[in-house]
Amino acid sequence: MDDGRPDTPPASTAGRLTVRDVLDLDLVAAWVPEVVAGSAHLHRSVRWLHVAEAPDVGVMLSGGEMVLTTGLLLAGDERAQREYVESMRRADVAAVVLGLGRAFRTTPEPMRRAAERCGVPLVVLHRPAPFARLTEEVHARLVHGRFAALDLSDRVRSALTALNLSGAGLQQVLDEIAALSGCPAVVVNLAGRALASAGDKGSLNDLLRDWERVSGQVAELAGGTVTVGPDGWVVAPLEARARQWGRLVLFGYHGPEEFGRVLGARASEALAMHRLLGDQDRGWEDQSAESLLHDLAAGTARTGELVTRVRAAGLPVGRRTFVPVVVRPLGAGPVDDRDGMPELIEHALAEDPGVAGLVARIGSAGTAVLLSIPEGQDADAAVHKVAVRVHGELAGRGRTAVVGAGFGCRELDEVRRSFAEAVHVADAAVAGPPDAPVARLRDVRLRGLVRLLRDEPELQAFIGRELGPLLGNPALLEVLRTYLATGRNKSAAAQVHHVSRPALYRRLQSIESLLGIDLDDFEQLTSLYVALLAHEAQRAAGPGPGR
User: Fold this and answer.
1) Beta carbons within 10 angstroms of residue 105's beta carbon
2) Dihedral-angle region of residue 319 (phi above 0 means left; psi in -120 to 50 means alpha; beta otherwise)
3) At what angle do helices 501-515 and 474-485 cross, to 10 degrees?
4) DSSP string, 399-438
5) Are 253 and 245 in contact (CB under 8 A)?
6) What is the DSSP letter of 251?
7) CA–CA separation, 196 vs 194, rounded Å?
8) Residues 132-172: pLDDT tens digits?
9) Which terminus of the chain is less hemmed in, N or C, by CB atoms within 10 Å?
10) Half-sphere exposure in the Cβ direction for 135 (13 Å, CA)
11) Given the DSSP bridges, would you call strands 185-189 and 194-198 parallel, antiparallel or unpaired?
């Protein structure tokens, strides 16, 4: 049954044959081949077979040929034998096959020495060989393999282009690449950081667990074109607009080397197209960090898997303290994707080489960073320094923000609760920014508690009971909010609303009448204040890492 995946032909029909492949054919074995020189070069590709007796045949070759000859016109002339081999070297042939029997009964020593010196594989056949049969066999395999490679190329390009045009995400495209190749696929940037991965989870975890070593080997194998390593590692450069920005690596491709090159080339083209068609303002580094922080905050991945992913993302994990921090801008609407907040935070982090961080946006309301602080260093002091630098960077741009931090974690599986705390603290601090550079749960007090409970049905019912009649009268609701915010200073509240004191008294009396309360009763006033805080928290609710 055809499942849409490319068939993998045997190595000898994969569009590329080496000298060794040809010598291993059953047909050739019957002629008793012997490699008498250049055995270190049997990996050379055979592009074509060429039967020729002319001593000057080298001028008619273009490279990669396996030349078949009986040496009939070379017999008895040692100089001609040497010059013949040297001309083969200049023509960059794959190998010379000499059939013994007609001109030579044994290997001609001048040819052997010249071939060894020139690095040209010289093979002698000890039994009569019909060269036509060998040519037919090899050419059939080459042609068949090249058509198979073209078919693979078309099928892979078609499948991946369809995904790109349908608007599929990076993960979907990479999943398809892993399925087409039958092995794990990883996208890395030029710094060796793993941005996305697909394929068998067990194999991926093994790779990411030792990512520092693996990424070093990938860098050694990488080149300007698709390269295939001895273990089936296929490394393809990722380029867009004539600039390389990363690599695609297929780990352990079991098919023919030529097919690996085809897969790598088509897959890298598809990823380049995906990048060009995608969000130009959010690179894959941003999307990768966002995905990882989301999984950390939501607790949707196993701890062991998260450790390998975090390490592969470039964040130190051994003997570290992790602190989630959330930055919310002040005095503006939703964050613009081009406001440069992640870059600003990364610049602030770069000033302290001991503290590392993974930075990403969290929805449209802010930016989060997971700080990794060396064990033994004061985590609170490190967070304070980062916050001071962030405020300094923002001040230089005429902007302000609040910075909320969670508690320090020794294990990654604790980060989820700490992230939730950092989000709550930052949201609560927006309504009442603290004097300190960074806000903690203790700083937001009642406002923070209400923010933590804002989605609870009981609190929502409490808001309705306390403020119900005012929820349909925004003007009076705002008067009540101002009255409480000014410490029940009627003169100050009147000035804020640009009305006279008698006019304010009348509005306060309307509030008392609608709600059936006494604004001089401390307990009733406290209930109203809590309800207002909860109402503000619900209105200011924005998406966080776990949303």
Assistant:
1) 8
2) left
3) 110
4) --EEEEE---BSSGGGHHHHHHHHHHHHHHHHHS--SSSS
5) no
6) -
7) 6
8) 888 888 877 776 666 556 666 777 788 878 877 887 777 88
9) N
10) 11
11) antiparallel
Helix (H, G, I), strand (E, B) or coil at 283: coil
Give me the sheet containing 194-198, strands edge to edge.
194-198, 185-189, 243-250, 234-240, 227-228
Cα 301 to Cα 323: distance, rounded to the nearest angstrom: 19
Rounded-to-integer distance, Cα 390 and Cα 38, Å? 64
Q: Which DSSP letter does residue 6 get?
A: P
What's at 250, amino acid-wise? Answer: L
How does pLDDT run across 372-395, given as a tens digit for each residue? 899 888 999 999 998 899 888 888
Tell me if residue 323 falls in helix, strand or coil. strand
Q: What Rg, from alpha-carbon coordinates, does the chain have?
A: 36
Distance CA 266, CA 158 (A): 10
Residue 178 φ/ψ, nearest 5 degrees = -65, -40
- Please give the mean pLDDT across all residues of the chain: 81
CA dist list (Å): 304 to 296, 323, 413: 12, 19, 9
Give the whole-angstrom CA distance, residue 361 versus residue 378. 26
Q: What is the greatest pairwise CA distance in the chain?
A: 128
Residue with tokens 């609608």: 514
> Which is nearest to 546 in space by CA: 448, 419, 433, 461?
419
Whole-angstrom distance, CA of residue 305 vs CA of residue 204: 9
428: left (phi over 0), alpha (psi -120 to 50) or beta: alpha
- Please say whether the dihedral angle defined by the alpha carbons of residues 146, 151, 154 and 159, taken in this order, is positive or negative: negative
Q: What is the pLDDT of residue 250?
A: 92
SS3 152: helix
Residue 384, C-beta contacts closer than 8 angstroms, at least 6 positions apart: 437, 438
pLDDT band at 547 (very low <50, low <70, confident <90, very high): very low
Residue type at 490 in one-letter notation: K
Residue that is written with structure tokens 């590692």 in the block: 233
